[in-house]
TrEMBL record:
<dbReference type="InterPro" id="IPR050570">
    <property type="entry name" value="Cell_wall_metabolism_enzyme"/>
</dbReference>
<protein>
    <submittedName>
        <fullName>Murein DD-endopeptidase MepM/ murein hydrolase activator NlpD</fullName>
    </submittedName>
</protein>
<dbReference type="GO" id="GO:0016787">
    <property type="term" value="F:hydrolase activity"/>
</dbReference>
<dbReference type="InterPro" id="IPR011055">
    <property type="entry name" value="Dup_hybrid_motif"/>
</dbReference>
<feature type="domain" description="M23ase beta-sheet core">
    <location>
        <begin position="133"/>
        <end position="167"/>
    </location>
</feature>
<dbReference type="InterPro" id="IPR016047">
    <property type="entry name" value="M23ase_b-sheet_dom"/>
</dbReference>
<feature type="domain" description="M23ase beta-sheet core">
    <location>
        <begin position="52"/>
        <end position="118"/>
    </location>
</feature>
<keyword id="KW-0732">Signal</keyword>
<keyword id="KW-0378">Hydrolase</keyword>
<feature type="signal peptide">
    <location>
        <begin position="1"/>
        <end position="21"/>
    </location>
</feature>
<dbReference type="Pfam" id="PF01551">
    <property type="entry name" value="Peptidase_M23"/>
</dbReference>
Length: 562
């Protein structure tokens, strides 16, 4: 009977969390930003690389150019045009204290689109971030504001939709505002993991436990652990009737009927969204592409309004008794899943020994090798790391330094750290100007122009991996999608950008001596024909100047007919 009472209390407590969260926000004030039924491709709080997903991804039936409408009365307060991120985005500020955001758009409504275009030609710059006063572009609920698209950091046609607190700019879970999205499916659990927490969640790391479906619940065999201090993590997804793997909204861990830890993903600011890396098993996410969420607090994880338990989630087992473990997952609609199992402390294993290069949360640390130095802030790590740093001879043909290994790309850092590297020979001033850091993260690379400080060059990074200094004398270039002097019959000009190291960081196009607006789409530059180059206007000269990360510039000239 006691166990039943405790279970009823836990369910009532979880229900009160959902109802309470929803009651804090206006219900049915906002309408759907699309004129088709709302279907989710991703929800608020879903796990992404280095951040939580900060809104809803709404399906557009795999199409572009669907009507996007204002979710409520207000005014356009901001627009953004950028290569990655939101692509083309509209921000609407509403009189009830909230701002809605609509991203990955193809086109703004006509008056706004013309205004943005005028500003781009005035600034001679495609990327824009423009703010507006309330009287410039007022909108009413349901008014067309844009056409949906696939711009920016989008992997397919959809609409990204956010609701923010206007004053704090904190993103709030849109599903707490009463949108009617059918959802009758409970979260699905597929894995459970325990961690020896005497030293760190990273060492020795995750211990996997097979999860089995048991009627309407989940279970495992009795979990035998060899540490008196442990924590748990869960691998699970939500489905919401629509097939996509959505993120978990609420989780709670109980031991012997007592709440040990819980989290809810109601609101997150962009300043804090990187704390996601302290909420997940980051090594598993980066190495195995697995989304495993901790049911405990890592010491350096300081995300506000996330842990609703007031406890750390670290379990102290002081005897070899069998203890009851219950994990409850819940979505915003109240659909619930439970995992019920038992844990027993079997024996004590050897504890990880801290090294002389131990990096801990809340303590800054500088670590050096003969020719390099890394300076980590007190906010750098989420849990203890026996930091390893080494150097070896560089093998890259353009290398002017040794290769430096900063621990492992499978361990996260929260904020920027400073890396200083000394080249392996004396460089001329001209060579110094062409020196770049090449950073290898394992799955991708990045090139950064550093700043010289004495005989070392330094730059700031926020991921670990392998770094080397390179001399880059190569020129960037663009390749046209037409033959020289050809008559262009389609609606666009497309140039493909290429550079040996790093990225094309500067692009300027002039048509017959006047700046021409090209959009940046990944590595391509695209101009959509308009009144600046009408049909039948004869032979045109297009001059394109590009510069890469190292600062090398190249000017190319092309001709075409229109």
């Amino acid at each position: 009977m006691k166990a039943i009472c405790k279970l009823v209390f836990a369910i009532s407590f979880l229900t009160s969390i959902i109802i309470g969260a929803q009651n804090n926000y206006p219900q049915n004030y906002f309408r759907s930003p699309l004129n088709i039924p709302m279907q989710l491709a991703a929800n608020f709080g879903a796990v992404r690389a280095n951040h939580f997903h900060m809104g809803l991804d709404l399906r557009t039936n795999s199409q572009e150019n669907l009507s996007v409408v204002a979710a409520a009365d207000g005014y356009v307060s901001r627009i953004k045009v950028e290569r990655y991120g939101f692509g083309n985005a509209v921000y609407i500020t509403h009189p009830n204290g909230y701002t809605t955001v609509y991203a990955h758009l193809n086109k703004y409504f006509d008056q706004l689109d013309e205004y943005v275009k005028e500003m781009q030609y005035k600034d001679e710059k495609w990327e824009q971030d423009i703010t507006f006063s309330p009287g410039q572009f007022p909108v009413t609920k349901g008014q067309l504001i844009a056409l949906s698209g696939n711009t920016g950091g989008s992997a397919g046609p959809h609409l990204h939709f956010e609701i923010r607190d206007t004053k704090t700019e904190e993103c709030i879970n849109p599903l707490l505002f009463g949108f009617k999205i059918p959802d009758g499916i409970s979260p699905i659990m597929s894995g459970l993991y325990w961690y020896d927490r005497r030293f760190s969640a990273y060492e020795p790391g995750a211990n996997g436990i097979t999860v089995k479906k048991d009627g309407s619940n989940y279970t495992t065999d009795v979990i035998q652990v060899n540490s008196p201090e442990i924590s748990f993590a869960i691998k699970a997804v939500d489905k919401a009737n629509q097939g996509f793997n959505l993120g978990i909204y609420h989780a709670e861990l109980l031991m012997d009927g007592q709440r040990v830890y819980s989290f809810s993903i109601d609101q997150v600011s962009y300043d804090d969204t990187r704390y996601l890396n302290g909420c997940i098993d980051y090594p598993k996410f980066t190495k195995d592409k697995m989304s495993i969420q901790h049911l405990s607090e890592l010491r350096g994880m300081k995300l506000k309004n996330y842990n609703s338990s007031g406890k750390t989630g670290i379990i102290h087992l002081e005897d070899d008794s069998v203890h009851n473990i219950e994990i409850v997952l819940k979505d915003v609609s109240g659909n619930t899943s439970k995992l019920i199992t038992k844990v027993r402390y079997a024996r004590n294993s050897q504890q990880v020994t801290p090294s002389d290069k131990l990096v801990k949360p809340d303590e800054a640390k500088t670590i050096s090798t003969e020719n390099a130095e890394i300076s980590l802030s007190k906010n750098a790590v989420y849990d203890a790391v026996n930091f390893q740093m080494s150097e070896k001879a560089g093998t890259h043909a353009d290398a002017v330094s040794n290769t430096f290994v900063m621990h492992s790309s499978y361990i996260p850092v929260h904020d920027d750290y400073t890396l200083k590297i000394k080249p392996n020979r004396k460089l001329t001033n001209e060579e110094k100007e062409k020196t770049v850091f090449l950073f290898d993260y394992g799955s991708d690379t990045d090139a950064v122009k550093g700043k010289w400080n004495g005989d070392k060059v330094e730059a700031r990074f926020n991921r670990l991996g392998t770094a080397i200094l390179l001399l880059d004398h190569s020129l960037p270039s663009v390749s046209p999608g037409w033959k020289e002097g050809a008559l262009i019959k389609n609606s666009t000009l497309r140039l493909n950008g290429r550079t040996k190291t790093g990225d094309i960081v500067s692009f300027r196009a002039e048509l017959d001596g006047k700046w021409l607006r090209f959009a940046r789409v990944k590595d391509d530059f695209i101009y959509i024909f308009d009144e600046k180059c009408p049909k039948g206007s004869g032979l045109h000269t297009l001059k394109v100047t590009t510069a890469n990360t190292a600062g090398n510039a190249n000017t190319q000239t092309f001709t075409f007919q229109r």
